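Our preliminary data section would be incomplete without showing what the modeling component actually yields. Below, a chain of 285 amino acids is followed by its predicted structure, encoded as tokens that our downstream tools consume directly.
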Amino acid sequence: MPEALKAVDFDTFLAKYGLEQYRAALVDNEVDSADLVLELSEADLASLSLGAEAVQRIKQAQATPLATAVDEANPNAGNDAPATPVCHQGHGAHDIYISYQFVTEAKSAERLYESLSVSQAAQKPLCVYFDKLCTQDVSQWKLENLTEMRGLSVIIVLISEKGLASTREAHLKPDTQFLEVQHSLKLMQESVGKESSVIVQPVFMWSRETVDNESFVRKFFPDPNEFPDEPPCHELSPVFADGKAMTIQQTLRELLKLQALDAADGEALDRLVPHIRDLVAKSKK
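Predicted structure:
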């Protein structure tokens, strides 16, 4: 197991994959580090008796490129450090950032990443920052993602009804996607009047359901009044121009002032690509 992965903070790793509630059970079984979780076999998982949901999340963690990324050679090893930060895929700058809740929107985020990556803006391929593939240092993934956001044109925020469950508790325990939303809004505000602007694009992830053999789209529209009017507890939450941190409720109000798109499946996400491509071009005018 790579030394870089052994250095990953255990609690940070558990939070990334929604495994916080299983911490005690893992530690009781002497699984107390990220590398040990990633090395669990099928037999190990069965013996731990964590339940189907925990096993699924651990397998997601084991399958993600983040688990193996540090095994690969650093393309810049032996060279002078580049002037521009380089992501794990070798890109020095990105046009688009995809913000999402890992547990609920990982597949949708990956589908959107793939669709955007083969698209072009102004005859140039779009460069998309997708944390599963681009994060260089897994032990510093939060700070690395926030740093990367500062040089972007468009930030896509995927929002689902299930994903917002974490946001409802962001005043009690850190919610990484909500942190990204807050930083996105701050970057957008700071870019007003500048040569290149930052555009934040919310996307409601509706669900497609089947009842009595009939398929329909279950829509939802978040109501900020249903969320705590308290500041989030994340230590990296930003302070805005007025010198204050926005509450969870205030943040959602600001986000929902923006014209949201919607998608219920992969094909619907694919149809958003031309619009997002136009946003990239617009941000650079």
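The beta strands are 96-99, 120-121, 124-125, 128-129, 154-160, 199-205, 207-211, 214-218, 261-263. DSSP finds 14 helices and nine strands in the chain. Preliminary results of this kind motivate Aim 1 of the renewal.
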